[in-house]
Amino acid sequence: MTQLDERDATDSTAEAISAASRGSAEYRADPYPVYACLRESAPVCHLSPPHGVDTYLITRYDDAKAALTDPRISKDMYAAMDAYHTIFGDSSVALDDNMLFSDPPKHTRLRRIVNSAFSPRRIESLRPRIQQITDELLGKCVTTEPVDLLASFAFPLPLIVICELVGVPENEREDVQKWCAVVARTGFSKADKDKLAVAEGALRDYFAELIARKRENASDDLLGALIRTQDEQGAMTDGELLSTLWVLLFAGHKTTAYLIGNAVFNLLTHRDQLEKVLADPDLLPNAIEEVIRFEGSVENATFRHALEDIPMRDTVIPKGCLVQVAVSSANRDPEKFESPDTFDVERKGLQSAHLGFGSGPHYCLGAPLARMEMRIALTTLFEKFPRVDLVAPAREAEWLKVPFPAFRGLERLPVALDPTQL
Ligand code: HEM
């Protein structure tokens, strides 16, 4: 490298770190060039995000996988309460007393209580109902004008499924979705935090009231089963029960909804790949894994923090700092995936390799459900509307702009279900 090349490389690394720290608009619209630069020149880098808590961002596959399973990198929010408060405030603390924000043995205890409800066998039994909901939603979509597939299909499908599974009555779901949307979109400004506190307060009050109602009148849904387990075995505190309900509802619909959108968008913008799937439907499960690798809906794993100084690459993550694992960067690491920026529905060995559902103890509990919903949604959509197409050029797609990069998804997905009818 010449001196000039070295200076350019240093400048672009500094720009990439700054973009990731600030959550710049360009980075939110297309984070992959920033991640490529960081993987190359600053794979474990210090960020100074607007929330003010020192954060280390991990972008390479091997490091990401190791970090997700490293017991020195904790998920216990009570052990990092100051940082957690600073970033999210009281209202989040009250909702997050669940498996996702705890370490073993608490994590093991809380996960075990709901594990069997998400086993592949139990999920398989939901297939007919998921198909029925899918048929109904697509049956209601108009074909004579463009529709936003996110609002009319991708969001309602997983929301109805998880609400039915857990036991949220139909006429109460709209409020839950509205409050969840506020939580998913929160930035770090004072106004954002105030809105977050109101939405989270409403969710907490609603869940407490729903639990009380179901305790009064036993139900045979998952919440009814959790209440019985709590009453009979004392397996969870009241706060843990409420927070478990929250994590299931929130994680159980946002992620899948955005992934349905990302899948449809990428298949419609890579026509050759869509043709392959339509010609050989057995390719669909692999195509879904490739969407999760190429444009998964979870961009960064949830917050972790270092319990001690942790040497990684040529840096040390200091004790107490936050650790952010960019799974969507790891999934584009050329050291792990050949031609990682190519969307290839026939790519081999994906399911056990990509980190789109996380890795280690916090590996996604709902992965079997998400996979089934994705398969039914995509199969039915392309069978019913084989000519479906985007109504605007792909470059005009609007990606979520929230500065905190938790989700990767579209704001809306306007499509013509049958362009011949427009
Ligand atoms: C395509 C859809 C989905 C994606 C991409 C996804 C992704 C993830 C990821 C990356 C994690 C690990 C987070 C971390 O380690 O910080 C996770 C955990 C989790 N997911 Fe999912 N998820 C999806 C669907 C679902 C569904 C449908 C449910 C249903 C309830 C669910 C429930 C959970 C729960 C409860 C955890 C926490 C597990 C634990 O802490 O042990 N997810 N998910």
From TrEMBL:
UniProt keyword annotation of Iron present: yes
Record's compositionally biased regions (Basic and acidic residues): 1-10
Region (Disordered): 1-20
UniProt xrefs under Pfam families: p450
Keyword match Iron: yes
Keyword terms of this UniProt record: Heme, Iron, Metal-binding, Monooxygenase, Oxidoreductase
Family: Belongs to the cytochrome P450 family.
Name of the protein described by the UniProt record: Cytochrome P450
Organism: Streptomyces macrolidinus
